[in-house]
Amino acid sequence: MDTWNEAAAAARPAEGPLAGLRILELGHFVAAPFATRLLADLGADVVKIEPPGGDPVRQWGEQANGRSPWWSMHARNKRCIALDLKHPGARPVVLRLASGADALVENFRPGQLDKLGLSEAALREVRPGLVISRISGFGQDGPYRDRASFGVIGEAMGGLRYLTNHPPEETDLPPSRVGISIGDSIAGLYAAFGVMAALWQRDRSGGTPGPFTLDVALTEAMLSMMEGTLPEYGVFGTIREPQGSRIKTAAPTNAYPTRDGKWLLIAANSDPLFRRLARVIGRPELADDPDFSANPGRLRNVATLDAIIADWSRGFDAAEADRVLTEADIPSTLCFNAADIAADPQYLARGMVRELDDPQIGRVLHAGIVPHVPEAPGSIRWTGPAIGAHTDEILGEAGFAEAEIRSLREEGVVR
User: Fold this and answer.
1) Which pLDDT belongs to residue 6?
2) Using one digit for the tens of pLDDT, what is the confidence trace for 238-255?
3) Alpha helices in 145-284, H assignment, sequence order
4) Can you state the angle between helices 318-327 and 271-280, rounded to 10 degrees?
5) How many CB atoms lie within 10 A of CB 275?
6) Which CATH number fits domain 6-225+350-410: 3.40.50.10540, 3.60.10.10, 3.90.226.10, 2.160.10.10?
7) What angle do CA 274, 279, 282 make, to 5 degrees?
8) Torsion, Cα of 158, 160, 162, 166 (10° steps)
9) Which intervals of the chain form a coiled coil (predicted)?
10) How far apart are CA 333 and CA 128, in angstroms?
């Protein structure tokens, strides 16, 4: 059966390069839902299966009318069905939905779906070409397979948490968090990328069934992002250490204080850029000083150089210093907070800050859609829906009669 989303596609024609793609989400918290939100933004029809009480993220963060503003964006463009996966009657419902899907994305602990009767074999029996993307803490095998994990565990084991700090000689505080669930989001990015790679290969081969199973681990997703950390250790035996707001390979690149108590990021780490910066800060002689004229010298004397630049930046408010540097074509920016982002003309011009009407919480700001696809732009078709908002619609499209839906609800299978 391959009709479960046809009525919705007709009622709400999707926009974007992924219009017509069908994704089933068995996800909770962050990683899998983030992956499917990216796909939904680009036009895919995503059906999210969540428990009758809803995804826990519905209750995360500050609440408006008892609802999370984060959820408004986290679940946008998805259709939600509330289904108790632990109920015996849930299995045939999921299989019916899977039979019409191109891909399934899940982030349960390894083996959990098998216990619910939703093994890869069962799913592929109803949809042989189904792409299955599995996100977990440590992967579907290996000695850590069954250990509990969240994004922060992936960040720590992947090496990011160790580096997200000031140098050890400057602080004895614990390594800082990035401030968001970056480990989950990075894993979600890899999952979304993997889904599209698998579907491309499937279509390239004329639709020949895979199987295509994607195994994404939070730890491995983070390790994959760690640039030269592992190769440098393998070749030199060196361990990359926290650098604070500097980088180890080039200078000057740092955050500098301003008169109004803000921070200004300046990245003048090539020789031509540094020559321009030296003129801007009133120290043109630095560009010809052997201690600063080339990058190796600037790195050896980085503390002195940063102090010189900071003396200049403290004489300006952040916005004014940024204007002066921008006019000199030197990469710089304020360290943006949410208010800065919401008011920024570049973000506004490109639709990356959008004011929407969420029926559950009122006016809300969302981040826009990435990537921009001018020829086939995605759209924010609706904000994160209420629990079970599309249960009847989705089941009806899957071929369930009204009496069957009523029976499923009375039995507590769906909400």
Assistant:
1) 37
2) 999 998 999 889 999 999
3) 151-157, 160-163, 182-204, 218-224, 229-236, 271-280
4) 130
5) 16
6) 3.40.50.10540
7) 125
8) 170
9) none
10) 50
Give pLDDT, residue 286.
Answer: 98
Percent of the chain past pLDDT 90, that is, above it, reads: 89
Would you state the pLDDT for residue 350?
A: 96
Give me 71's structure tokens: 């959820």
Helix residue ranges per DSSP H, 266-401: 271-280, 295-300, 302-313, 318-327, 338-343, 345-349, 391-397
Q: Which residues are catalytic?
A: 184
| CB half-sphere exposure, 187, CA atoms < 13 A | 35
Which DSSP letter does residue 26 get? E
Residue ranges of domains in the chain: 6-225+350-410, 253-257+263-334
Contacts of 28 (CB under 8 A, 6+ apart): 50, 51, 55, 56, 57, 107, 108
Q: What is the CATH number of domain 253-257+263-334?
A: 3.30.1540.10
d(CA 364, CA 386): 16
- Residue 299 CB burial class (10 angstroms; 0-12, 13-18, ≥19): middle
pLDDT bucket at 12, cuts 50 / 70 / 90: low
- Predicted TM-score (pTM) of the model is 0.92
Q: Would you state the pLDDT for residue 169?
A: 87
Q: Across the chain, how many H-helices and E-strands are there?
A: 19, 11
Mind listing the pLDDT tens digit for each residue in 193-228? 999 999 999 988 887 667 899 999 999 999 999 999
- The strands making up 263-267's β-sheet, listed across from edge to edge, are 253-257, 263-267, 332-334
- The pLDDT, as a whole number, for residue 205 is 85
pLDDT at 210: 73
Place of tokens 């919480």: 361
Beta sheet of 22-26, edge-to-edge order? 78-82, 45-50, 22-26, 103-106, 131-136, 212-217
For the purposes of burial, counting CB atoms within 10 Å of the CB of 395, is it exposed (0-12), middle (13-18) or buried (19 or more)?
A: buried
Whether the per-residue pLDDT at 365 is higher than 50: the answer is yes
Task: Report the 10 Å Cβ neighbour count for 19.
Answer: 15
User: What is the spatial distance between Cα 229 and Cα 20, in angstroms, rounded to a whole number?
Assistant: 41
Do 6-225+350-410 and 253-257+263-334 fold alike per CATH?
no
